[in-house]
Amino acid sequence: MSPVTELKPALLWKHFAALCAIPRCSGNEASVRAYVKGRAVEWGLSVREDAAGNLAVSKPASKGLERRPGVVLQSHLDMVCEQNRDGKHDFSCDPIDPVVDGGWVRAEGTTLGADNGIGAAAMLAVLEDTLIHGPLECLFTADEETGLTGALGLDPALIHGRTLLNLDSEDEGRFTVGCAGGVTSWAEIPVSGSRPDAAAGWSVLLTGMEGGHSGVEIHRQTGNALKYAARFLAEFLASQPAGAWQVAGLEGGDKHNAIPREALALLAGPSDGRAALQTAADTAARVYAAELGPEGVGLRFEIVPASVSWVLSPSSQQIVLDLIAAVPDGVQGWSKTVPGLVETSCNLASLRLADHLLRISTSQRSSSTTLRDETSRRIAAAVRLAGGTVRHGDAYPAWPPAPVSPVREAAMAVWKRLNGKPAVVELIHAGLECGVIGDRVPGMDMLSFGPTIKGAHTPSERVEIATVTRFYEFLTALLKEL
Q1: What sign for the dihedral angle of Cα 425, 431, 432, 435?
Q2: Of 29, 50, 115, 144, which is the active-site residue?
Q3: pTM of the complete model
Q4: Is 78 marked active-site?
Q5: CATH of domain 183-392
Q6: Domain boundaries, the chain
């Protein structure tokens, strides 16, 4: 029995516990789709699926409300699967283990999947609950976290309502009315190498960085572990006699929408070189932590012996370190019209050096299509100068705010009535499926909201219990009004 099933609202937490028990990393969603279909059949509701794996479950209107406009609730079924390097969780088969910790729910050593499991659980609760509402559809989208591919492949005929409530926001009392668009890129750069000349191998592990969601938290500038690991290698090699040390490996990062928290480098060097390496690493850790401020307090390097059988050639070593330094990362520009809003960013998301190839992935976001594409061009230019090639994924559009929005006005009124104060209306830098769905289904009036979730896309992800209660109360009250 999951501890979250003791929480209120009971139906929502019951379904969230069920979702936690189902492995549902992006691309591994067959079982969670089966769960949704099974519940829909159990409740006598119609369910439809398109070729992209999106599900739409229809629930008839309450008696007397059949003529109201149709409303669509929308959340994605997949989750970001992250753990620290020493974690043993197998996301392909192990359930998420939710823990009630004070006023929050978190997981044991992994991401929790509250993003967007709380939204999906709320939709399942609405489908099961006895509520007052007009014609209702629940759209469960597939594979959101790897690039909104479910939404990009949405069959517009799957849904009929033209008012959409996206339940994928992460700050209580804030209504999102617009977001950035984006694109993911993958680069490959050939490298050369040979057996090491040095007598010993060393592993340099950078840990303790905060990471975070590459859209929601990019403005916090928590630092990218890949950038700092490559910087340390460049600074250390420059301080040593030429050729005394050789780079044998570098890797880190996993998801395009998660800022890398850890990075692992391999070096070949003199058998008596550990002391010099450790001293340089300790000094670098202090310098980098001071640069990052409060976000850098946990940064540290761990040096341990390692087996090294191959090292980069001097020319490839220089190309690799120069390229990582040159690739854009972090905030690239701020909005000229909305103070404090990131307009354009890039996340150096993952890096692997193996099989004579350096593989890099990046995620570019912007509320401007031209600036999104210009950032992608800069990445491609740097990679081509390093002798590599780049492939860009399917771009997804930004969601511009609507000048007039009946659902926004209704939501503002309901929120103030329930909470005694107005909600905050905002634009965000993260990419929501609203931009894609609005592009695929013209005429949508859209709003996004949710409970308070912290640390999304990291093992510190947690959701505040009290805000989940208020979130569901608000959702059901709003459905009664629409």
Answers
A1: positive
A2: 144
A3: 0.86
A4: yes
A5: 3.30.70.360
A6: 3-180+398-481, 183-392
